[in-house]
Design goal:
16 helices, Growth Hormone, Chain: A, 0% strand, mainly alpha, 2 domains, 78% helix
Length: 468
C-alpha cells in the first residue's frame, strides 16, 4: 500500500534507530514492522506447538504410512478450500477476512481438544487440518503484509518481519518441550488457540494504525476498511510500474486458480514454488535414507534402540544447526543481499546452492556431505528464500495477493510434496535407486528450477522497473 502526500513527517524513534542495525528502516516504520514481526512469530510458534501434538495422534491413529499420503490429502482439501477462501476474499474487507478465517481455525482447536479427551480417533483429520492451517494462515499473513507495504517498503522491511517467522519456528519447538510435561500433549491445542487470538489482535492493531496513517484522507468506500480484500480496483498504486502491473480494470470475481493460470508472472511463481518444494522434499528423503544407511553400516541393528538413538542424535544436531544458521542469515544477511543484489538475482541464490549441493551428492553421497549440503539448502530456504518469495507478491494486485497467493502457497506447495512421494515410490519400487541416484534426479530438477527462478526475477524486475 503506497504512501501518499498526506503522511506526517516523523522523527526517527529509538526503535527505528535500533532496527536500522538490521535493515533500512525509515522514520516511523519501526513500530508496524515490529508488530508484524511479533505477529508472524506467534503464528509460527502456534504451528510448531500443533506439530508436536499431531505426531502422537497420527502415529496412534494411522501410523507412519498415513503420514506419507497426507500431502495428497491436503492437496485435495486445498482444491476445495482455496476457491472458498477466494470467494470470501472477493466479498469482505481484509480485516473481516483475516478475523473470520483466523478465528475459525482457532475455534477448531478447543473442539479437537474435547474430542481428544473423549478418545475420539483424530489422527488423520487433525494431521490434515494442521497441514492446511499452516499453509493458509501463513499465506494470509504475508498477503496482509504485502497489502500494507509498497514494493519499496516491502523490500526494505520484509527481512525484519521474516526474522519473526524464523524465530517462531525455533521458539515453538522449545516452548512445546517446556510445556508438554507439566500440562500434557492435548492442552497444547488450547495454548496454540490462545496464541492465535493474540496474533489476531496484533493484526487488527497494525490494520488500524496503517489505515489511519495512509487512508485518513480518503472517503470510507475507497479504503481497505470497506473495499473487499481481493479487488483489482487499486486506488493506492504509487508508481507507474505498479500501475502497469495492477492495471485499472474494475473489480472482478475471478477465482484463485484462474488468476494463477491467466497471469504469466503468477504461473511462473507457482511453477518455481512447486519445483522448489519437490527438490527440497526429495532432499529430505535423501537425508533420511543416508542416515539410516549410515547406522546400518556402523553395525547398528535395524529397529534397535541404538538405531533410534543414532538417528535421533543426528536430527537433533542437524535441525538445531539449520535453525541457528537460518536465524543468523535472516538477521544479518537477507536485507543486505536484497539491497545490493535486488530480488531479481537474490531469487537465484537458493537454486545455485542446491545445484552445488546435489552435484556433490551425485558423486560423493556420504553422510557428512549430505548433512552439510542440506544444512546450507534448508538454512537459506527458511531465511532468504522465504523472504524473497513473499516479496514476489509486492507488485501484484490485491486480488492476486489474497487469492492467487493462497493457491500458490497452498496447493502448489503440496503438489511438490505429492510429486516427491511419487518420485520416491517409482525410484525405490521400479528403479532401485539409492541416495546417489535421487541426488542426480534432483540435479535435473534444480536446472528446471533455475530456469523458472530466472524468469520470475526478470518479470519482477519489469514490474518494479521504476523503483528497483
Amino acid at each position: 500500500m503506497p504512501a501518499n502526500g498526506h503522511l506526517r513527517v516523523m522523527n526517527p524513534s529509538p526503535l527505528d534507530r535500533f532496527l536500522r542495525l538490521f535493515a533500512d528502516v525509515r522514520d516511523g516504520e519501526g513500530l508496524s514492522a515490529l508488530l508484524l514481526m511479533i505477529n508472524v512469530f506467534l503464528i509460527l510458534t502456534a504451528y510448531l506447538l500443533l506439530k508436536v501434538v499431531r505426531e502422537p495422534l497420527i502415529l496412534a491413529g494411522g501410523g507412519a504410512e498415513v503420514k506419507s499420503y497426507s500431502a495428497a490429502g491436503q492437496a485435495l482439501l486445498l482444491l476445495v478450500l482455496v476457491p472458498l477462501y477466494s470467494a470470501l476474499a472477493s466479498r469482505v474487507p481484509r480485516k473481516k477476512l483475516i478475523n473470520w478465517v483466523t478465528f475459525a481455525f482457532a475455534l477448531c482447536l478447543p473442539a479437537f481438544y474435547v474430542l481428544a479427551r473423549l478418545n475420539v480417533p483424530l489422527g488423520i483429520p487433525f494431521y490434515l487440518w494442521v497441514g492446511v492451517f499452516s499453509l493458509m494462515i501463513i499465506a494470509q499473513f504475508w498477503a496482509f503484509a504485502n497489502d500494507v507495504y509498497t514494493t519499496d517498503e516491502g523490500k526494505r522491511l520484509f527481512p525484519i518481519i521474516g526474522f519473526g517467522a524464523s524465530a517462531g519456528a525455533v521458539a515453538g519447538s522449545f516452548i512445546a518441550g517446556w510445556l508438554i510435561q507439566p500440562i500434557g500433549v492435548y492442552q497444547l491445542m488450547l495454548v496454540a488457540a490462545a496464541i492465535l487470538i493474540v496474533s489476531l489482535a496484533l493484526t487488527n492493531l497494525v490494520d488500524a494504525r496503517e489505515r489511519k496513517r495512509r487512508e485518513g484522507h480518503l472517503p470510507p468506500p475507497d479504503t481497505t476498511a470497506e473495499m473487499p480484500a481481493a479487488t483489482t480496483s487499486e486506488m493506492r498504486i504509487a508508481t507507474t510500474a505498479e500501475m502497469r502491473a495492477a492495471g485499472s480494470q474494475p473489480v472482478q470475481k475471478e477465482g484463485a486458480f484462474a488468476l494463477v493460470f491467466r497471469h504469466r508472472y503468477l504461473l511462473l511463481i507457482a511453477c518455481m514454488v512447486l519445483v522448489l518444494n519437490w527438490v527440497n522434499s526429495l532432499g529430505e528423503y535423501i537425508v533420511s535414507r543416508t542416515v539410516t544407511d549410515a547406522a546400518h553400516t556402523a553395525g547398528i541393528a535395524m529397529g534397535s534402540p541404538a538405531e533410534k538413538v543414532f538417528i535421533g542424535e543426528f536430527y537433533a544436531s542437524y535441525t538445531g544447526i539449520v535453525n541457528l544458521a537460518a536465524l543468523v542469515i535472516q538477521l544479518f544477511l537477507v536485507s543486505r543481499i536484497v539491497k545490493y543484489l535486488g530480488v531479481r538475482y537474490a531469487v537465484l541464490i537458493l537454486p545455485l546452492i542446491a545445484l552445488g549441493g546435489y552435484g556433490l551428492l551425485a558423486f560423493y553421497p556420504v553422510l557428512a556431505a549430505v548433512r552439510w549440503a542440506k544444512t546450507a539448502e534448508n538454512a537459506t530456504d527458511y531465511s532468504l528464500q522465504n523472504t524473497i518469495r513473499q516479496m514476489l507478491f509486492l507488485p501484484t494486485t490485491r486480488d492476486q495477493k489474497y487469492k492467487a497467493k493462497q493457491a500458490i502457497d497452498g496447493f502448489f506447495v503440496r503438489m511438490g510434496d505429492v510429486l516427491q512421494a511419487a518420485t520416491v515410490f517409482a525410484g525405490t519400487t521400479w528403479l532401485a535407486l539409492r541416495p546417489q541416484g535421487f541426488a542426480r534426479f534432483n540435479l535435473v530438477l534444480v536446472v528446471i528450477w533455475l530456469v523458472f527462478a530466472w524468469q520470475v526475477g526478470r518479470e519482477f524486475q519489469k514490474r518494479t522497473s521504476v523503483t528497483e
